[in-house]
Amino acid sequence: MEAMDDMLLANWVNLHSSMKVPSSYMQPPEARPGTLFISSGKTIPVIDLGGNHHHHAETINQILKASEDYGFFQVINHGVCRDLMDDVMKVFKEFHSMPSKEKLNECSNGSCKLYTSGENHRRDAVHYWKDTLTHPCPPSSPQQYIKYWPNKPSNYRKVVGKYTEEVRKLGMKILEMLCEGLGIRREYFLCGGLSENPSLVVHHYPPCPDPTLTLGLAKHRDPSIITILLQDKNVRGLQVLKDDEWFGVDPIPYAFVVNIGLLLQIISNGRLIGAEHRVVTNLRNARTSVAYFINPSNESIIEPAKDLFVNGSTQKTMYKSMSYEEFRTNFFHKGPKIESELRN
Ligand SMILES: O=C(O)CCC(=O)C(=O)O
Ligand SMILES: [Fe+2]
């Protein structure tokens, strides 16, 4: 039997579908998901972006309120074409169902990463039930980067290129609306490299023989400005923590899930929340999710926006100013303790 550590999880599960969960994937009792799909009646807000300009102020209020209360919302009528959403999901599902060797070969040029469990498999105390493909998608020089993306399935670059362009437009539009609501200049995120380094992260969670023991993704907050997530239409898995309670983000076909990242929490001086979330696994169905992270360039300065402190504002800045590079170093070394590190 091929050692599990040498394979991507999707391929291992294909060969060993009737196996029990290996002990290296069993979460300690306190981290196990417990009741898998909670229906406490709480759902994250669903916001219709399709209204005409008369509804503009109301839409901004809805987005702002959802970002303050939950740090998460779903958007419908967002302008990204449904066929493109179907196509991109199909491409990623095809990618993850290719033989391990072929997938690794497509990601061997140093720009894309393909890994199983967490980013550093050998350092995971417990493994996570997923494989992940990730690559940069810089908006200013797409042609230069696309040639480093996987070239299989054969339409990968074309479909993913178009998709990232469309999702970026949506992400920037949402950021603009948040700026308007917060009282920050609308172009804030177009300046200082703040949105110049987006990346695409595609997770694949194979079916798991016992989802009560495992996690697909540990509890975390995103180290991004904002994340635009496309989730599988029919398979649940994503959960958000609110008021110490986990609740599911049930998929709505053709909606996007939007969540506030820790960087936007800082920029908004703590008004918007980078909420904790995690992913549970599923007994029968594989789940694929596609996250587009809007990230700054390394030199960008992350700090509460100066626009919040003008006109006699009595607010105090809650967070230190630091470069994105410094933030990342803190984030990856301090993990959950990062909050105290960032505060003034
Ligand atoms: O798979 C998901 O639904 C969530 C992914 C996620 O939270 C992340 O990539 O940061
Ligand atoms: Fe996340």
What does the secondary structure layout of this molecule look like, with pairings?
Blueprint: H1 9-15, E1 46-48, H2 56-69, E2 72-76, H3 82-96, H4 100-106, E3 113-116, E4 131-136, H5 142-146, H6 156-182, E5 199-205, E6 217-220, E7 226-231, E8 238-242, E9 245-248, E10 256-260, H7 262-267, E11 277-279, E12 287-294, E13 301-302, E14 322-323, H8 324-334, H9 338-342
Parallel strand pairs: 1-2
Antiparallel strand pairs: 2-10, 3-4, 4-5, 5-12, 6-11, 7-10, 7-12, 8-9, 8-11, 13-14
Helix pairs in contact: 2-6, 3-6
The protein binds 2-oxoglutaric acid (AKG) and fe (ii) ion (FE2).
Residues 201, 203, 217, 222, 229, 231, 237-238, 277, 279, 289, 291 line the site of 2-oxoglutaric acid.
Question: Describe it for me?
Answer:
Residues 195-296 form the Fe2OG dioxygenase domain. Keywords: Iron, Metal-binding, Oxidoreductase, Vitamin C. This is Fe2OG dioxygenase domain-containing protein. It holds the Pfam family 2OG-FeII_Oxy. Belongs to the iron/ascorbate-dependent oxidoreductase family. It is a single chain. The chain is an alpha+beta fold. Helix content is 28%, strand content 19%. The protein has helices at residues 9-15, 56-69, 82-96, 100-106, 142-146, 156-182, 262-267, 324-334, 338-342; strands spanning 46-48, 72-76, 113-116, 131-136, 199-205, 217-220, 226-231, 238-242, 245-248, 256-260, 277-279, 287-294, 301-302, 322-323. It has an eight-stranded mixed sheet. β8 (238-242) and β9 form a beta hairpin. α3 crosses α6. The mean pLDDT is 91. The structure holds 2-oxoglutaric acid and fe (ii) ion. 2-oxoglutaric acid is lined by residues 201, 203, 217, 222, 229, 231, 237-238, 277, 279, 289, 291.
